[in-house]
Amino acid sequence: MIEHIQGENNSDTMDVKSFILFLLVGAIAGWLTGKILRGKGFGLIANLVIGVIGSFLGGLLAQFIGLSGSGVIADIAIALGGSIVLVYLLGLVKK
Predict the structure, then answer these.
(1) Contact yes or no for 29/79 (Cβ under 8 A)
(2) Each residue of 53-73: b (16+ CB within 10 Å) or e?
(3) How confident is the model at residue 82, as a pLDDT?
(4) What gap in Å lies between CA 39 and CA 70, rounded to an integer?
(5) pLDDT tens for residues 31-78?
(6) Would residue 13 count as lying in a domain?
(7) Does residue 5 sit within a domain?
(8) CA spacing 20 to 30 A to 63: which of 48, 53, 56, 73?
């Protein structure tokens, strides 16, 4: 069984539970983004991709403006914010 997922420099490790929680937060954020912006979700895989990329973007934006939080609710809120920004930017590029 896989116990750790290691980054390139081997100092960044994420256990399997954290990775699954990260994916779950991403899926929830992607689904909520779909509900807010379209009135329905984008589909399971698209929700996951949008949410995971949005999590990274939201984390960067939160650090940039000085926001911080702890816990799953804060993680979902930051991921949701990043996901909404991501979908908005993608919409601008698409036009």
Answers:
(1) yes
(2) bbbebbbeebeeeeeeeeeee
(3) 92
(4) 29
(5) 898 888 877 667 778 888 888 898 889 989 988 988 887 888 888 999
(6) no
(7) no
(8) 48
Residue 15 lies in a domain: no
**Structural contact between residues 51 and 30, judged by C-beta atoms closer than 8 angstroms:** yes
As a whole number of angstroms, the distance between CA 52 and CA 58 comes to: 10
Q: Which two tokens stand for residue 91?
A: 């919409």
- Domain that includes residue 38, residue range: 23-94
Whether 81 and 56 have beta carbons less than 8 Å apart is answered as no
Look at residue 2 and tell me if it is in a domain: no
The C-alpha angle with vertex 19 and arms to 14 and 54, in degrees rounded to 5, equals: 115
Name the domain count of the chain: 1
Secondary structure letter of residue 38 according to DSSP:
T
